[in-house]
Amino acid sequence: MRRAPVSLRITAGLLLLAAMPGVAAFAVDLPTRKAGLWEIKMARSGGALPDMTMQHCTDAATDKQMTSTLSPMSKDICSKNDTVQTATGYTTDSVCTVSGMATTTHADISGDFNSAYTVKVTSHAQGGTAGAGRDTTMTLDAKWLGACKADQKAGDIVMPGGLKMNIVEMEKMKRLLPK
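The structure assignment produced for this chain is given below.
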């Protein structure tokens, strides 16, 4: 299986992680996904990223690691990051700024995290290299497929075209970057 260039793996991984449940510190803890192989279909409008389907092999420890890895980052870049439980799931609202671009995001999360979940995201970005405001929508539909494949380990994400990355390895790479 081909490996994506490091920059593509990091960019795609961060986009995926930012939109998945359980990846940042919230006032309300989101459930941990059932261990195994998840298929995640991402449909977007208003942005440059194409629709895509990926697979993510996970376990409870990996989901927890995703939370602890991104929690400090979200505290540094987000002035607001609120999650509340609703009758149908969860709602999150955040305001985050990266490289001068402020993004306001609202997400509705529903599902049981054992067999399927859906994340519907609307966002508005302003400033940075984007300049004028830009609105995007994204829907993630995730379904549990069963056990991870024999050649997969927890943290593996297989992107379109067979590009493979591992979020645990990405965290190790981050430690090598100058501070």
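Interim note for the steering committee: Strands lie at 36-45, 52-58, 78-85, 89-98, 101-111, 116-127, 131-146, 156-158, 164-166. The mean pLDDT is 79.
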